[in-house]
Amino acid sequence: MKPFHRKLLGGLVVMALLSPLGLILPQWFRSGDAWGEWGAETLERMLGYVPEGLRRTADLWKAPVADYQFWGERASGTVQMASYILSGLLGILLVGGFALMIAKALKNRER
């Protein structure tokens, strides 16, 4: 593995390990949802309306693991933090693997 790739992978793993801060900080500061992760209901409460495009497409995609919780929202805080870390690592593996497949396909295409 090249030094750049090792550093990139290390940085991504560190970010995955820090991802539980998304659970901890809003609780500490009593701030509600993380910025930009609002659902239609929250936006309606904040703005007084839901933008038409969001209303039309809100139910188009359902996440495979809702709220990054493999064991449900009623799980202990430690289990929820582990779910966040596991989600981050799984995302790194999936996106990294997909990128490698594309890179190999493009390299083979050049030959």
Q: Which bin fits the share of residues in helices?
A: 55-70%
Order of helices and strands: HHHHH
Uncertain segments: none
* Tally of contiguous helical segments: 5
- Shape descriptor: extended
Please give the radius of gyration in angstroms. Answer: 18 Å
Strand content: under 5%
Largest sheet: none
Q: Quick one: how many beta strands?
A: 0
- Determine the structural class based on helices, strands and strand pairing: mainly alpha
For the residues shown, what is the average pLDDT? Answer: 89
**Euclidean distance between termini CA atoms:** 23 Å
Question: How would you sum up this structure, described in words?
Answer:
- By secondary structure, this protein is mainly alpha-helical.
- It has a domain at 3-30 and 62-110.
- Helix content is 66%, strand content 0%.
- The chain contains 5 helices and no strands.
- Helix 1 (3-18) packs antiparallel against helix 5 (77-110).
- The longest helix is centred in the C-terminal third of the chain and has 34 residues, at 77-110.
- The two termini are 23 Å apart.
